[in-house]
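Internal ticket - ligand job 339, phenylalanine:
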Amino acid sequence: MLDKIKALQDEVAAINAATKEEAEELRIKYLSKKGLIGQLFNEFKTVPAEHKKAMGAAINDLKVFALEKINTLKDSFSESNLGANGVDLTLPGEAMKLGTRHPLAVVRNEIIEIFARLGFVVSEGPEIEDDWHVFSALNFPPEHPARDMQDTFFIEKDPDVLLRTHTSSVQVRMMEKTQPPIRAIFPGRVFRNEAISARAHCIFHQIEGLYVDENVSFADLKQTLLYFARELFGEKTEIRLRPSYFPFTEPSAEMDVSCSICGGKGCNVCKYTGWLEILGCGMVDPNVLNLSGIDSEKFNGFAFGMGVERIAMLKYGVKDLRLFFENDVRFLNQFKSAY
Ligand code: PHE
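stdout (structure tokens):
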């Protein structure tokens, strides 16, 4: 039996494998229960007692020798999975992290959805505009302060080219190309020459609304905005319209919603008034209709415009506007939404 062990020892010393599979075949051939070394353990039972100790040790040594040899062969194949720099190419890849929508996009989409339920379509206009669409067609007198360089970004070479300061310019574009009935909202970026702070930014987002038809009343405006406010801030929300002034609407109003944080009782968000101002609105000035080619004898309408940042701040309790522009993922990841 010792001879047999010696012969197997030599045989194992000479084995080699070209693939991982071949190495596994060798393991089965030598080390499995019915393998060549495994069988030695069976024969061992018949060894006379006085030789058992030496024989047992020899078989065990052979087994350990074969195990190490075959494991080394196997390891050499798994090493071949390593690419340059010793990277194991067989490891599973890192899962791609799923992003979230930007909170301003979430709020914008939610507002679009609400007005879509009332039959408003979405339309967009250019960010780089001309004086006509941003000011003149909207009834701004030549000396209006909004036309001032302090407020508006103009282009030096051509005073007629400017960055729109509000989305009301898209009202004009809509009326120029479409006859009533018009029900549309216009989301988009606007630009004003303002220093960046917690409450202001030189770039922000608005959503404009325009409704033009026959016999549109102020009650239609109020009911539309009440529906909108309740859909966005909850069904207990109340609205209030305060008289205001815009060159392109007459009469004009600012709309407040009852504070969704304190329910109207008064808190530091609503500055203890119970109300939060969220948009400007009014009946479209007949002059504006006429300037865009719509007969103001036959048609009338209402318009409104709101700041998306402001609404997002109120809805989510965000205290600093700059967070929306820094794109810190720790901030952005907190807004997971169906919109
Ligand atoms: N364009 C106005 C603003 O930027 C908002 C507004 C839109 C007011 C439509 C009335 C009607 O402040």
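Auto-summary: The pocket of phenylalanine is lined by residues 166, 168, 208, 246, 249, 280-282, 303-305 (CB under 6 Å). The two ends are 79 Å apart (CA to CA).
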